[in-house]
Amino acid sequence: MQPLHPRAAHEPAGRTPVAPAMTKILQEEIEQHGARTAWLAEAMARVMGLDNDTVQAVGEAASYHDIGKQYIDEAVLCKSGQLESHERRHMEMHVVFGAWRLMSGERPGPRLASQVALLHHEWWNGGGYPFGLSGREIPLAARITAVADVFDALSQRRCYKPAWPRRDVMAYLHAQRSRQFDPECADAMREVVSGLPADWHRQPVPMPARRLVPPDGVFPPLHAAAQSLADRLGCRA
Ligand SMILES: [Fe+2]
Description:
Elements: H1 24-47, H2 52-63, H3 74-77, H4 85-92, H5 94-103, H6 111-119, H7 140-155, H8 166-175, H9 183-194, H10 224-234
The protein binds fe (ii) ion.
Fe (ii) ion binds at residues 65-66, 94, 120-121.
């Protein structure tokens, strides 16, 4: 079987993989994406009538949804064009690595943040990963984050793609309503976006005040068990 992690072939058996170094620019890109996704997720949760404590918890959890990308090779994160199947499986591991990161270490994150990190790429119709959950099997916070994540990712320029115009982003969200996205969440996003200024994406957004992990970019090595679980989930491709 082809190694899921490009470096896995070079790792001696049983050795814990070490988190790769990541450029500051990419770290900031991930952090700002986390902050904007959190802001959007909170706004959506408010539109959906959730209480204040839940709104705050959803925002905090959403801010860390992509924390596992710290463990993904930069060459894969920034590759333009289609990923090879082993690269795609490696990229998909960020959900497992993120959940593991939030559950371990000196300051473990709350359960909701781990759930969102693990499940924010599940699809309403069951077509997502890592488990292929569908509908309300997916926790609400993850369904909200999924929409906020995609809205922001498409709206921003990334190292592998230009920013999409807002009308194209909204057309995508509409096309994926009841497919990739919970229709209620997609509707909530539409309402949130209707109040956003056109240059919202060019304004920096602060991270939620309470931090689950240190902001210094220091990431501990993954436990071998997380890699092993990721390897097994990666076989879904
Ligand atoms: Fe993600």
